[in-house]
Design brief:
homodimer, 140 residues, alpha+beta, Dna Ligase, domain 1, 3-stranded mixed beta sheet, binds manganese (II) ion, binds zinc ion, DNA-binding
DNA sequence: TGCAAGTTTGAGACTTAATATCAGTGATAT
DNA sequence: ATATCACTGATATTAAGTCTCAAACTTGCA
């Protein structure tokens, strides 16, 4: 069991939800494919491993994981929401507005910023998403 | 005509698209309500002023505005994508994961960061979106 | 001005995504 | 064992997004 799976699982149990077999399957599949999938894409993959798991359960598990703050739906212009992992406290993208390529990056010095914001707005910061838009190497 | 309307209109014409009456109506309505609306919400409002404008035209105008970089669809967990204005080069949110309140803020010292990123990844930065998630004053 | 080529438009049909229901299962506590 | 409540998944329904096509409009050029 990878560390990510553990983090997501713990987030479930620590918030009073039950870590059922169906939810385990959803979490493991989501982590295995590194996020960036839609609910229906994920449901399809989950059912390759655990065919009994219904589509609704996938949607509901994603909802719970979002509620406890370890994943986040983002809009990628494909109709369906895609989910990214927030378990490290942040997620960062460079997105080309022409070819729609998404480049992940980890380094982000915005920790200070988010802390200051928290104070200013009396807000308990848990995580953040930074998306930078523009043109990639190939597209300009 | 407000400055925002002008910026969005110019983005249309400067990229070789035509600034038609229908597109003007969409832009004016979008700016008038400050963004943060879904395509269908916007279509409804546009038709209060310009009843002949079809739903498809609203979707297509939003697509064009996105392509030229002055608006951006975001996912707010409500099913439909919502559109925010990026004409100032950035957009920032504090979002409560419990009550889903969205607090806008303008100050963002991440200009440096995005510039460095641009160099590192050979990426021409145009704009960015920063969303900070957590619990608002009332929700903790 | 008259015409051709290309863009934009809007009605409607259609596909896909998301949500609501509800009876049934499984876990938990007493 | 029983009562209670969370969870599940099939199905139905609604909402959101996309596709198509003929008509209208622009624009550039003869
Ligand atoms: Mn990512
Ligand atoms: Mn905003
Ligand atoms: Zn690109
Ligand atoms: Zn709140």
């Amino acid at each position: 069991m990878t560390n990510e799976v553990e983090t997501l699982s713990n987030a479930i149990t620590e918030n009073g939800y039950r870590l059922t077999a169906a939810r385990k399957a959803v979490i493991e599949t989501l982590v295995a494919c590194g996020g960036h999938v839609s609910a229906d894409q994920l449901a399809k993959r989950v059912r390759e491993v655990a065919p009994q798991v219904g589509r609704m359960t996938v949607f509901r598990t994603l909802e719970v994981l979002g509620k406890v703050g370890v994943i986040r739906p983002i809009y990628q212009g494909t109709g369906a929401a895609h989910y990214v992992l927030m378990h490290k406290g942040s997620h960062h993208h460079l997105i080309c507005i022409r070819c729609h390529q998404v480049i992940d990056f980890d380094q982000c010095e915005s920790g200070d910023l988010t802390q200051r914001l928290g104070q200013k707005f009396d807000f308990q910061v848990q995580s953040h998403l930074l998306e930078v838009y523009g043109l990639c190497k190939n597209c300009r």
